[in-house]
Write a structure and sequence with these properties.
single chain, 175 residues, alpha/beta, Rossmann fold, five-stranded parallel sheet, two-stranded antiparallel sheet, 7 helices, 7 strands, globular
């Protein structure tokens, strides 16, 4: 299985990027490609800018990455209770090219934050909207209190209960 994984964040130190790397390493027998949203940075979307620029090559390239994958693993960062502007912008550009951004792929959605809700607001938004854009959502998990439950040095979840939940939800990608 070819697994495409990324954090829906443009922070270079993103804890969601750390989580998605760890999660991807737990998917058995997967050929994993981890993307960095910074490689797909685009001007702020507007219909005026779309008329001026057309459909940016980077948006096409991102959609091509999705097309080439068998499954997707995404960890959503939360900014002010919502998804990040970086993800929303890329998503908006892509949806103008292909409304089914997720292209029917099986998807596991994750989120984490330093707080007790673990980015649940961003995850809720993603879970609500993604099926309308072609996502076959297989499961989701919010990891609360990232700094208390993740060892940055080893890149591993330290909370056994959360790790078991993560392994279980990741197993849905292979069914």
């Amino acid at each position: 299985m070819k697994l495409l994984a990324f954090a829906a964040s443009n922070s270079r130190q993103s804890i969601n990027k750390q989580l998605v790397r760890h999660a991807a390493s737990l998917v058995a027998a997967a050929d994993v490609e981890i993307l960095d949203l910074n490689d797909y940075e685009l001007p702020l979307f507007s219909v005026d800018r779309e008329k001026e620029l057309g459909q940016p090559e980077l948006a096409h390239a991102f959609l091509d990455k999705i097309a080439g994958a068998d499954a997707l693993l995404i960890s959503f960062a939360e900014h002010n209770g919502a998804i990040t502007a970086a993800w929303k912008n890329l998503y908006d550009w892509c949806s103008r090219i292909e409304v089914n951004v997720y292209q029917g792929k099986p998807v596991v959605m994750l989120s984490t934050s330093p707080g007790r809700r673990g980015g649940a607001g961003a995850l809720e938004i993603a879970l609500k909207t993604a099926p309308h854009f072609g996502a076959d959502i297989r499961g989701s998990l919010s990891i609360p209190s990232f700094n208390d439950n993740f060892d940055r040095d080893s890149g591993q979840l330290t909370n056994a209960e959360l790790k078991a939940k993560l392994v279980k939800v990741l197993g849905t990608l292979q069914s």
